[in-house]
Design goal:
The chain is an alpha+beta fold. It folds into three domains: 100 residues, OB fold (Dihydrolipoamide Acetyltransferase, E2P); 83 residues, E3-binding domain (Dihydrolipoamide Transferase, Irregular), CATH 4.10.320.10; 220 residues, Chloramphenicol acetyltransferase-like domain (Chloramphenicol Acetyltransferase). The strands form six sheets. Strands 11, 14, 17, 18, 19, 20 and 21 form a seven-stranded mixed sheet that branches. A four-stranded antiparallel sheet has the order 1-8-6-3. Strand 20 and strand 21 form a beta hairpin. Helix 2 packs parallel to helix 3. It is globular.
Length: 410
């Protein structure tokens, strides 16, 4: 029995997608729920699983093709009830097919191809022994995988399990020699990021205000309760949960920063959906903590850990990254001391965290060394006045320098 393979139904906010890669070729034996093809949209990567056990029969749309919801992209033959020849093929090849191509996440497959690694030599640590990005990095460090000379390790490879003819063409080399250049297609996610950044610059009056915070009280609190917190909740107590809670309290006091402009109206949100900017192999994504004001600090840390894992594996869903009323970004993890974060439309504010650095500061007429962090708040001046923006940042600073305020609500 022939089965049609169709593009999943996209949400209303997604009009089309691009076939990123086929993970099987015609004639391959496939198992039910095995990922057959990855389709990239401007927000997430959708995986099209095999509906039943069988054999991939035909590919109608190759990698690089732009497809829409419900479009027919391939066909497969169902194993059960088919001719003896098909059943024999499935029975004989199922185990070998699984062994031939271990499952790897898109980011892991990209690293495997870029470094010409032997996928069979890499031990997966994910669920079902699937290979994660960190597994490939570990293999590169220990040289436990068989490395073959790569023709061009700087080339942008598509995320397939093994090289296939359906892959997009290699980047076009414009000039060779001592000053080489490459031209590569912009990913849909990168194109969407560029579009939104330009939208923010064109449609908002963005200003940034700065302050600094002494992180010693938070660091002392973390040090005092770190072991007990991890033992009870099974997750480490990080800095981000403190910033999330401090930001929520500041948003309560200055609701303009938890609002957005819709035409000639101002929409004041009665909930706190906090977006956390995360760097992923595909680019910057902003998963959202829904109703973060109702979450305990342990819940925040657990959810953030879950999002970080999904971002590494490229498995964030559209729901995970849609919406948000305020955003927090942490350039400090990359060593940034000071920056001006850009708004995430249609939000009116974004808080930028930076690297903690020991600096001399004046306290009670004496110079002391403290772990200081620069804070930056970018805001839409059409909606937020400078006074509110400055006081918002001062509120965050005061709460972090005296974390007891979170408990007392002062």
């Amino acid at each position: 029995m022939s089965i049609e393979l169709k593009v999943p139904v996209f949400p209303e906010s997604v009009s089309d997608g691009t076939i990123l890669s086929w993970n099987r070729k015609p004639g391959d034996v496939v198992k039910r729920d095995e990922s057959l093809v990855d389709i990239e949209t401007d927000k997430v990567v959708f995986e099209v699983p095999a509906p039943k056990d069988g054999v991939l029969e035909e590919i109608l749309e190759d990698a690089g093709a732009v497809v829409t919801s419900g479009q027919l992209i391939g066909r497969m033959r169902e194993a059960e009830g088919e001719s003896p020849a098909v059943e024999e093929t499935v029975a004989a090849g199922a185990a070998d097919a699984q062994a031939e191509t271990p499952f790897a996440t898109p980011s892991a497959r990209k690293l495997i191809e870029e470094n010409a690694l032997d996928i069979h030599a890499i031990q997966g640590s994910g669920s079902g022994n699937r290979i994660l990005k960190q597994d490939v990095l570990a293999a590169l460090e220990t040289s436990s995988a068989t490395v073959k000379p790569a023709a061009d390790t700087s080339a942008v490879a598509t995320e397939t399990a093994e090289p296939r003819k359906e892959q997009p063409a290699e980047p076009v080399v414009i000039q060779e020699g001592e000053r080489p250049e490459r031209r590569v297609p912009m990913t849909r996610l990168r194109a969407r990021i560029a579009e939104r950044l330009l939208e923010a610059q064109r449609n908002a009056a963005i200003l940034t205000t700065f302050n600094e915070v002494n992180m010693q009280p938070v660091m002392d609190l973390r040090s005092r309760y770190r072991d007990a917190f991890e033992k009870r909740y099974g997750v480490r107590l990080g800095f981000m949960s403190f910033f999330v809670k401090a930001s929520i309290e500041a948003l309560r006091r200055f609701p303009e920063l938890n609002a957005s402009i819709d035409g000639t109206d101002i929409v004041y949100h009665g909930f706190f959906d906090i977006g956390i900017a995360v760097s992923s192999p595909r680019g910057l994504v902003v998963p959202v903590l829904r109703d973060a004001d109702r979450m305990a600090m342990a819940d925040v840390e657990i959810q953030l850990g879950d999002y970080a894992g999904k971002a590494r594996e490229g498995s964030l869903s559209l729901e995970d990254i849609t919406g948000g009323t305020f955003t927090i970004t942490n350039g400090g993890v990359f060593g940034s001391l000071l920056s001006t974060p850009i708004l995430n439309p249609p939000q009116s504010g974004i808080l930028g965290m930076h690297k903690i650095q020991q600096r001399p500061v004046a306290e009670d007429g004496e110079v002391v060394i403290r772990p200081m962090m620069n804070l930056a708040l970018s805001y839409d001046h059409r909606l937020v006045d400078g006074r509110e923006a400055v006081q918002f940042l001062v509120t965050v600073k005061e709460i972090l320098e005296d974390p007891a305020r979170l408990t007392l609500g002062v």
